[in-house]
């Protein structure tokens, strides 16, 4: 009987400790992005991101932070784009292109000191086409996906989360042809609240 009581107390203590290291929250912020490759202006444009996150702690220093974000990237084409891809984007008369992604970063978190943590990990983005449902977009995930590496830092001030990160695309997002290699780069600044 004594052993069962000790095991029950241990399970309650461990589960309480795990729950104390688990939080969910919402976040949003600004994107400064550009698409590297021929036919695009080599300048950063602005967009935004909104979504949710979970924090799962493992001990005092390490944790995992999975997120689900809606990211809007904007970019501008240069004059060579129309010469290479004639009549492809005839609705984009001013040369502006918006790319909407459902992004799923999975970040390893390491607490450096006090409220400061560094984060790094992979991110997979699904290009969302506005004329398709979410289920149809999910079916196109590997055809229109963007795989990136993410690194940054986060400050935890009570329930407030302030973070900055840089993501660099590793794969070619050009699904039109093989003429050019296009890769995303984005700098994100975020503010979030954990519950």
Protein model, in words:
- There is one protein chain.
- This protein is α+β, with helices and mostly antiparallel strands and about 200 residues long.
- The model is unreliable at about 90-95 (pLDDT under 50).
- The chain contains three helices and eight strands.
- A hairpin with a 2-residue loop joins strand 4 (about 95-115) and strand 5.
Summarize the SSE layout with pairings.
Blueprint (H helix, E strand, L loop, with lengths): L1 H19 L1 E15 L8 E14 L3 E15 L2 H6 L11 E18 L2 E12 L6 H6 L5 E13 L2 E10 L13 E12 L1
Antiparallel strand pairs: 1-2, 1-8, 2-3, 3-4, 4-5, 5-6, 6-7, 7-8
| Tally of separate helices | 3
Helix coverage percent: 10-25%
Tell me the distance between the termini: 38 Å
Quaternary structure annotation? single chain
Low-pLDDT windows of residues? 89-93
Shape: elongated
Mean pLDDT: 80
Q: Find the structural class using helix and strand composition.
A: alpha+beta
Rg (CA only)? 21 Å
**Widest beta sheet: strand line-up:** 1-2-3-4-5-6-7-8
What letter string, H or E per element, gives the SSE order? HEEEHEEHEEE
Main sheet summary: 8 strands, antiparallel, barrel
Query: What portion of residues belong to β-strands?
Result: over 45%
Question: Number of DSSP strands?
Answer: 8
